[in-house]
Structure formats: C-alpha cells, structure tokens
Design a protein that fits this description.
By secondary structure, the chain is an alpha/beta fold. The protein is 44% helix and 13% strand. It has 11 helices and 8 strands. The longest helix has 21 residues.
C-alpha cells in the first residue's frame, strides 16, 4: 500500500522544535515536542502552529501533510524523559487523533496525517548503530501505535545511516503502512556517516524491494546538497520531498548555537525553486530547523 501524491503538491510544516523553543519561548527537554500533548495549553500551541501552515496550503491551493510532534517519542528518549512504554504508546496514538481532529475541521483541504519517527539516537551524530533487524524491532513499537490510531503514512526524519532506514522500511512493510524515509546530510552533501545520498537510497530500495513510497532530504540547507542532485540518475526520481534548514551552518555549528539562525528567507525560497527543476518527482515541500511559516510562504510564492 502506497500513498499517491503525484497529482498535487503538498505543503508541510517547518521547524517545529526550533519554533517552539526560540519563537514561542517553550523549553523542550531533549527536543521533545510531544510533551505538549500532555496538557490543553500545549495542544493549543500546537494547534496554532499547524493552523499557520494549513492557512498557507489553503491560500496557495496545495495539499497539506500534518506530521505528529513525535520525532522524539521512541523508547530510548522516552525513558530519559520518564515515560513508560504504555504512556509512550498512548501519546503516540493521541498525537495521531489530535491531527485527525484538525483535519476534520478543514475538510476543504486535501490533508494526510503522517506519524513522525526520528532516529533512535541523534540526528546529527552517528552512534548506537543497529542492524536492519534491530532497527525494525526497535521502531516497530512507535509505528504500531501510529497504525492502531489509523495514520495515513509514516515519515522517518533526519536519518543518518542506511541500516536504520532499512530497518524502519522493513517494519513498515510488516505493518503494511506507507512510508517516507528522509535522510539528513552534512555540508558536504554526504550522510553523517560519509555515505553518498544516491547510494543510501539505492541500498534501501535494494534491501526492501522499493517499499519506501518516496524519499526526502531534511535538516540541511540546499547549499549543502543541491549540487549532488544534478544529473539523470534513477535515484533522483525517488526523491519526493525536501525540508531544508533555514541556516547554511553545519550541524555542529547549529548544535552549539544559543540563538536562532533564520537565514536568508528569499535565498532559501530561490534555491528550493531551483531544486524543483532537478527533482522531477518532487511533490512535498516543508522546512526544518530555523524555518517558520514566513519561510514557507516565500517558498510557496517562488514555486507557484
């Protein structure tokens, strides 16, 4: 089962965690935005956040992908935050139903609800390596919660090595849920473990019979990867979305920064427009660290 997005361009949101921390003044322990689901005030903040992007999708006549605030809601991070597995299951399911309710209120817009999965450890640094089978078993817990709640698809963001991506794809295939895999890259355009993006996509496809619905690139500025997208390789047709950072800084520099780098909004929009010409199957556009609805509006204006 795969989600067909070929007939429309879908917008998605920007940098959720950086928006909450730097623009909303909310402290997120371990970058865990899912904790806002625990109280009505937090849910209201999330609702306002998503509404700002949904309004853009309506204005520019795009579809919209609602992604759950669960990038950190996997067992290892939950343990650090004091959550039991039962509590984690509940919050992952509630995150899906919360977004389903928002979709129900805006029926005029074509919207999909995506369950967001993050890496087991850190998106910027490759550590605690797993085999594909280990990764499948580990991520199955969160994915099963999403499936139980009736999610439309699952998106695994900011992955930094191939075996974890393969494992997530194997778990998704076992649960028969559409899957998006999104790799992050360094300023070199390579994955944090040194792998070429082209080879990463080809390896995951080879190991999973191309189960992944499409691939994305996230948490990197277009300057870091656009030159790798020039050419005619079949792997380029597998990239269906991009969610760039606002800043041109490296992951290491962003990790050490105590202020928000919103970058050059017009430059980001121009480069996203350029990327569209490199990727024939690009249908999903959003943002990552440092981006907000202002960045997304500039990108929408540039694309249309």
């Amino acid at each position: 089962m795969k989600q067909d997005i070929s007939k429309n361009i879908y917008l998605t949101d920007g940098g959720l965690e950086t928006t909450l921390i730097y623009l909303e003044g909310i402290e997120l322990t371990h970058f865990a935005a899912f904790e806002l689901m625990n109280h009505s005030e937090g849910r209201n903040v999330l609702r306002r956040y998503f509404e700002s992007y949904i309004s853009l999708a309506e204005k520019y006549r795009m579809g919209f992908i609602l992604g759950t605030p669960t990038w950190r809601a996997n067992p290892d991070w939950a343990y650090l935050l004091g959550y039991s597995l039962n509590e984690l299951d509940k919050i992952n399911r509630q995150s899906v139903t919360f977004l389903q309710d928002i979709r129900e209120e805006r029926k005029a817009i074509d919207m999909l609800v995506s369950g967001c999965i993050g890496p087991r450890s850190d998106g910027y640094v490759v550590r605690n390596l797993m085999t594909p089978d280990e990764a499948a078993e580990y991520h199955m817990t969160q994915m099963q919660s999403f499936v139980t709640a009736g999610v439309d698809l699952v998106s695994a963001l900011t992955l930094n090595y191939v075996d974890e991506a393969i494992g997530i794809a194997l778990a998704a295939r076992h649960l028969n849920v559409p899957l998006v895999i999104s790799f992050t890259v360094e300023v070199s355009g390579l994955l944090p473990d040194g792998e070429f993006l082209s080879r990463a996509i080809e390896k995951v496809d080879a190991a999973t019979d191309k189960y992944v619905s499409y691939y994305m690139i996230n948490c990197a500025h277009p300057d870091h990867f656009k030159d790798h997208l020039r050419g005619n390789g079949e792997w380029l047709r597998r990239i269906g979305g991009v969610r760039p950072n606002a800043s041109t800084r490296s992951h290491a520099e962003l990790d050490e920064s105590t202020i928000l780098d919103r970058g050059d909004i017009r430059r980001l929009a121009d480069e996203c427009n350029q990327i569209m010409s490199f990727l024939p199957e690009l249908r999903v556009i959003g943002g990552c660290c440092g981006t907000d609805h202002h960045h997304m509006e500039a990108i929408c204006e540039g694309l249309l």
